[in-house]
Every structure is written in C-alpha cells, then in structure tokens.
Amino acid sequence: MLSAVADAKREGKRDDVDTVFASHYVQVCLPKFHMPRSETPKEVAYQVIHDELLLDGNPRLNLASFVTTWMEPEFDKLILEAINKNYIDMDTYPISTELQDRCVNMVARLLNAPIKDGEPAVGAGCIGSSEAIMLAGLAFKRKWQNKRKSQGLPWDKPNMVTGANVQVCWEKFARYFEVELREVKLREGYYIMDPEKAVQMVDENTICVAGILGSTYNGEFEDIKLLNDLLLEQNARTGWDTPIHVDGASGGFIAPFICPDLEWDFRLPLVKSINVSGHKYGLVYAGVGWVVWRSKADLPEELIFHVNYLGTDQPTFTLNFSKGASHLIAQYYQFIRLGHNGYKRVMQNCRENALYLRDAVDATGHFHILSKREGVPLLAFSLKDRCQFDEYDVADNLKRFGWILPAYTMAPGAEHITLLRAVVREDFSRTLADRLVRDIIRTIEYLKDRAAKSTSQFTPPVPRNQVPCEDNVKRIGEEFVRRLRLKAAASRSQGVC
Amino acid sequence: MLSAVTGAKSDGQRDHVDTVFASRYVKVGLPKLRMPECETPKEVAYQVIHDELLLDGNPRLNLASFVTTWMEPECDKLILEALNKNYIDMDNYPISTELQDRCVNMIARLLNAPIKDGESAVGAGCIGSSEAIMLAGLAFKRKWQNKRKAQGLPFDKPNIVTGANVQVCWEKFARYFEVELREVKLREGYYVIDPVKAVDMVDENTICVAGILGSTYNGEFEDIKLINDLLMEKNAKTGWDTPIHVDGASGGFIAPFLYPDLEWDFRLPLVKSINVSGHKYGLVYAGVGWVVWKSKQDLPDELIFHVNYLGVDQPTFTLNFSKGASHLIAQYYQFIRLGQNGYKRVMENCRENALYLRDAVEATGYFDILSKKEGVPLLAFSLKDRSQFDEYDVADNLKRCGWILPAYTMAPDAEHVSLLRAVVREDFSRTLADRLLRDITRTIDYLKKRAVVKPSELVPTRPVPAEQNEERIGRESLRLSRQKSTNARSQGVC
User: Compositional bias (Basic and acidic residues) at which positions (chain B) (predicted)?
Assistant: First the structure.
C-alpha cells in the first residue's frame, strides 16, 4: 500500500479517499506476508477485505454444517453491545457472568440432572463442544487416576472407548492428554458405536465410555440406554465403576424437545457428564458450547480454579480465559426468546423438512438413504450406481447452483462408503428444500448426459450393462481419482460438522 | 413468562407487544434456573436482557484490563458480516482461512522468525493466549518426551520454570497437562522473574523456561536476553538443550514498535515459540490470540491434524474447533488499517499518556510507583501510608466516580504488597487521563476526611502505633482477609 500512497503524493494528488474504487488503493493487492508499512483509510480497508471475503462460501447455503447460520436482528444488537466485554472479567461484568450461570442451570435441568430446586448445577460455558469434551475427559482422567492411586494400582495407561464415528475432538483429547483411544469399528449398514462391542473393550484402565447422540456422519442417535445397561452389568461383576459421557453436540438440543421419552441423559445412572453445542441446535452462532456434570462429585475439585469476586467464590473450569461475552448472552437470549415451546417448534419444523427431503430424494430412485428417520434432522445419502459418476461429482456440480453439499467417506470400518450429507438447520425452509431437490435432479441428469457423451467417444457402442466397469478406460481413470480422493479424505479431520 | 401471556388472553387483551414497558412481560423477573415454557416476543427479549446488562461495568472505563474495548465501526461491520461463518470450515470459507494464515505470517515476521521470503510461518490463530500457551506447552512437552525416550531416559516427570508472576493459564497448563510448575518467587522491589534463579531451577526434566514480556502485575518486561545467555551457558555444560518460550501476551505487540532494538524474540537462539494476544495490544476485541514457532522442527508433527481441503493439505493445531471467523478477520483488518506506522503511533500515544499519568500521580505525593517507565503502558501504584485507608478503599471509592480500577496483591513472595493498576489502552485519551487524576485526588481527599471525622473514642488523641488502633486493627483484618481471598492468581484478570 505504501508505494501507491507515495506515488499519489508525488503526483500532487490528494491521498484522502473520495471513492474507494477511484483511489490508488485498489491498484495493489492486499499484503500476505508482511504487515504494510503505512496505514490505510478505513473505508478502503473495510471494502477491500469485505470484497475478498465475497469469495467465501455462503454460510446459509452450506448444508454440510450443523452450526447455526442465522439469528434474529435483535441478537445482532445484543452482540455488538457486548463485543467489548471480556467475559472472564467476572468482577467487572457480573451480569454477563450470571447469564452464563443461568444457562448452565437451564441446560442441566433440560438434561434431567438430579438437582434440587434452587440448587446450582455443575457446568461450564465453553467455546464449543471441543473444549467441553476436553474438560469432561480431563475430569474423568483425574477421577480415575485418583481412584487408582488410592487403590495402589498403576495409573499410567488410561484409555477411553468410543465409536470410530466420533468427531475429531475426541482424537485430539486422546492425543493431547495422553489417553489411549479405543475405537469400535463400524461396518457396512451399521454406522454407529455397537454397545456390546464397546463394553467388551472396557478394562480397568478405561476412564469412560463415550456415546454420541447424533453421529456427525449420518445423524443417528446411539443407544445410550443399552450402553448404560450393559455397562452396569459389567461394573457389577468387575467393580471397575466405569462411567459414561454423552457427546450431545447436536442431539443434546434436539432430543429433549422431540423425543423427551428417550432415555439418554442423566436419567441413566452411569451418565456422569454431557456436552451440548450451543452453536448447533442451541441456535447460536459459532463459538459457544456447554458441559454439564451430574453432580459435584463428578468433577474433581483440584481441576477447578477459584475466582473471588464481589466477595463470592466463583469456581471456573475452562481451557480458554479471555473471550467475548456475546455468545453466552446470545444463548440466554435464545432460551428466553424461544422457551421450551419455541425450541420444540423449531425442531419439529426441521424434522418435517428433513423427512420431506428424504422422501423426495428417495423418490428420484438414484440414491440409497443412509440416515434414519429419527435422530438429527439431516439427510445422508449415497448413489445406487457409481459407474458413471460418484458423490464427489454430484457435490462439485451442485456447487454450480450455489449449494455447498460435500461428499465424505464413512469412518474406519466402512470407509468404502461415500455419502452426501445435507443438514437441515433452523433456517432451511420448505422452499429451499424444494429448490435443493430440483437441483439434485438436474445435477444427476447433467452428469448422466455428460457420461453418455464421453462414453460414446471412448468406448465401443455396446449396451452399458454388458461392459464391466473395469474395461472402460475412462472409468478406470475416474476410479483412480475416486480412490485418491478417498485416501486424501480418509482423515477424520475432514468431517467438519 | 407463561402466566403473563395467559393473563393477557384471558382478559381479552392482545398479547402482542405494543410497548415493551406497557406490556405484561415486565411484571415478572427473567427466569434463572429453568428454561421458560413459552416464547417471548423478540423486542421484549432484547430489551429486558439489554437492560439487565446495563448493570455490568462499562468496558471503556475498565482500567484493570489490557483487553481491547474499542474498534472502528468499519470493523464492527466486518465482524457482523462474518458472525455466521464457522472458521474451522476451511473448505467452505477459504478466504477467511487465508486471512488467518496471512496474520500468522505477518506476526512471525514481526517477531523476527527466521523465515525466508515467501515461506510460510509455523503458527496458529487461537481464542487467546491461554490456548496459545497450552499449544506451545504441549509442543515442548512432546518434544522433550520424544527426546528422553530416544535417549532411554525416564520421561514421566516434566517440569516448567516460570516466575511466580505468571498469568493463571500457566498454572492451568501445568495442572491439566501434568507438568510440574517451578516458580521463581518474587521479592519486594523485584516483581519479575530473576533469570539467575530461573536458570538455577532448570534440570534435565525441564521442558522449557517461560519468560514474560509484560508482567500482568506491573507491566515490566522480563530480561529474556539474560535468560537466553545464562541458559545457553548451562546448556553447553549439561547438554540438556533447554529451550525458552516467551509469553508476549501484552508486550508482543508493543516491543516491536516502541523498542525494536530490544532483543527478546526469535533473534535469541533459545526462543522457540512466542504467544501474543491479538485482543490486547493487537487491538482486537476479546477472543483472538496467536502462537508462532521458530520453525517446523519446534512443533512435533504428531500433534498436528491434517485437514484436506480443495486438494491442499492444511495442517491445524488447536484446542478449539468450531468458532466464529470474525475476530481473525478483525485482526487482519487492523494490520491493514494501521500498518506498522499506525501501530507505532498508537503505542507511542499509550506510552505518553501512561507517563503523563505516572508523573501526575507521583506528584500527588500519596503513592509509590511500582511500574517502570519502559514496558507495557500502565501505571501500577500503591499508597505510601496505609494507616487510614488502603488501596481497596481507593478502588471502591473510585467506582463512585465511574472508574473500574481494582486493587490487587502481588504474587508470592511479595503478597504483602497491594497495588492499584491502571492500564492505558488505545482508547484512553489525555482527557480521560486528566479526569482520572482529578478523581484520584478527590478520592484521597474524601478518604482522608472520612478517616478524620470518626467518633473520638475510636481514634486515640495521641499518636499511637497503628497496631493499637482498634479501628485500624479492624481495617487491617479486613485487608488481610481480602488479601487471603484475592491471593489466588486467578483474580489477576488481565
């Protein structure tokens, strides 16, 4: 930017900005490696950065993600008002602190934590379910270590049991906090954790078994009750007292409203902690999650830091320190704005739109449906016939219509399965669902058409169903690309949720 | 809220909201323990929550904090526009991802990381220095463990050497990641890490020595160069190869602009990683920090997760996953908006205003000054005479004038020293400095008057040692109890 300004000065031109696009500033690119020497007028800085960001995907059309992409304008007002509040400064911002405490209490009671009237719940506001899960895992690890130490037994090889379909943050927790991750592999047709296999993998070093309410791959709810019952039996025999954590990142804000009789939460005796993402079906923008413990006894005191403000003790247990107060306030806003009824109606709308989408996509005849009718409102589907094009082609071509609907491979044990996933969030109306179906159909037609044209160029004109795919040179090339993508995408890290 | 709505319906009245304060919704308190059954109209939800929040302190007048409390409206626009972008979704928001990478590159070069032209720096955007420090600590721990395993030596007792003045996140790191924290105690008059003592404490299990550029207590820069030189000598003797991490949470964005010749960063050979807070003198709202490593070798590959997007490998190393993209974009906005020149002028203004405040407070004659002229632009000061009132009284009374200027006790072993700390941030003008000074003077006058106008039986008519004064004893015991309750480093909010 310096040279543009210097030039302007030398030529005797004004260097104040009348119109951004008439100025000298748009003649040079934004710097990438070095902080520029000089200042840039604020209108220019805003406009040029804003413009480059136009090339990001449109969050509203990002069907890959569970994370909230729309909130009411009233919330935008609240967020701006709170943007310069550093949440951790509880002394100075006691109301913001209290709003967080109210959210913890409300979430805990929603999850049926056994708390008496008026008693504060045990929990924390986090940046997201990753932080929440790390805190929960840390609590399990420390509790288990203390127990083993008091029993005079070795405590250097903790492990935890999960399904292979867990989100990457579990792998991070295991790697960073030195816990062995034991994963129950999936299999074709069964894409979540098998409770029996899970319980078999448990031993005396298991700090907890983690079940998911709403697998990121296909939205399915794992059978936490069965897990609980089997583990209770095993605990009775072994005396190991292995507990359960439920990753309710998506499902935790769905199940209480549309399937309240499903027993998956603190109603099950072995469930000691649960995390939920405020920024998924908690209906707040990215940057807030919650972890709740059943009781004080489930959170070792030595992990808690005590902040003393206004003469009262405020215990804190977080990995992050300074952070904005806006999202915590936003969560409280949503709880008041929607109430139980409002959340229920939103979830019902999501479910109905997801079922509508499911039926419509099923009716095209091109796809297998991999998601269940119950669970997180999403549609996971894969092509019946991959000879001419695959899910990655479908995803690439849907982009041309504006949709972001990526393709993934399933987790280990079933990584030969590729699928497309469309998450139905609060802001996905029936109108958009109709558009999506129409564009999926158009995409398939286009791809078939394209395949037919290229087949006729490269292969002898024989009925398609009599030619093994392997004999088709172009098909081999495509298969090679597909496997390459499969290999590149095999890292669970790509499973953004 | 439910009963208010039912009431309205049964009275045959409309239950939509004409005026919030004429409606039934303001007759009941907001719920605290249980989610309400019914919805609330959005104007009401906004207004009632907004109103309760009026009772929070005013961030602009919060002189305790280093964290940015003002940004230009243009940045607010960018922040709002990016609210619904989940940063971690690199596939879908590649520009936001690239803006973060640009920030990492710019910061690394600001800190003199030895990177060639066009080469990418090794670093990460974080929520704040806490996450940054945990990532850096994790890297040191894993590197040390790998080295010990390769040597066939025990690797179960890692420790880290710091000053007792470290921010609480170091204690958290130590506690959560099972590393022993060895703290060099302070002493009266010396409120930062003593490099000689620190290097003394190092042994074969030390994963790193952490120095601070800008102690939260009094803003002082620790002598990183001396730590480096002493540690190099020791490393040469022992072969332990102990590295250094610099916590530049506040100082990291000040020193490059005000003290460019001060050697504290990657120019020192033993410095392997540095954290800086984007939300302190990086001039962005709370929620962004940065960690940079000297080179790839300093970050064990096994800690990195690889995300594959658009066919390109994007390595990531973070504790948090989903989070908003706004603050990372805001950091880039500041780098472009201000440039090096702009940052320098902001820091110079802060320094001048801090020095002005220092001279003026000192001139009142009531206070000892505990901060240095160099360092983070702040004023740390304590009362010369505590017999009638203490720093907590001053803080309490300054609140009545609108200022949030809390009192603290120093870290061990200087916890008998209490102090007031006023941080000069970007948005603290000379006008505000004048006001603060006037109010400090008024507060002292008020407290002196209040101390004198007491029932005569509580105040002896002849001079007596402070210990024999009942009211003084009462006050002293109150002060000690506050000291005890505030001793937890956790209260040192920065």
Answer: 469-479
